[in-house]
Amino acid sequence: MSDGFWRGVFLSAAIFNWFVGLSVAFDTREWAASMGLQTLHYDAFYSPIAGWFVILFGMLYFAVWRDLDNRAIVFIGMIGKLGAFALTMAAVWRGLAPAAMAGVVVIDLIYAVLFGLFLLRPQTAAARS
In this predicted structure, what is the pLDDT of residue 106? Predict the structure, then answer.
């Protein structure tokens, strides 16, 4: 796959994280309910912090979009996305999170697989030196 494809993956991952992070950081329950959506519990302390870290990961994916040699970021991002998937699915199975959350974190799982495939590709000459 071309560098252009991978840049698209990391830019879309950044945008996805920024969108999710903002929706976690701010109390969107009333807005979501007006559209018939079920949301997670909002905590005035923990939700903004959690949202900030999701946004921060998006900033890191943006850095990879700019420089594909940032393989350590991709590896940490892959672990983060796998963890987000596993922890959220566990919460859904225990009834602690709405079932619709499973659909959202499947996107994280897809990105984790894509990040793993990216890490399996040969490194560029610049990254090896």
Answer: 95
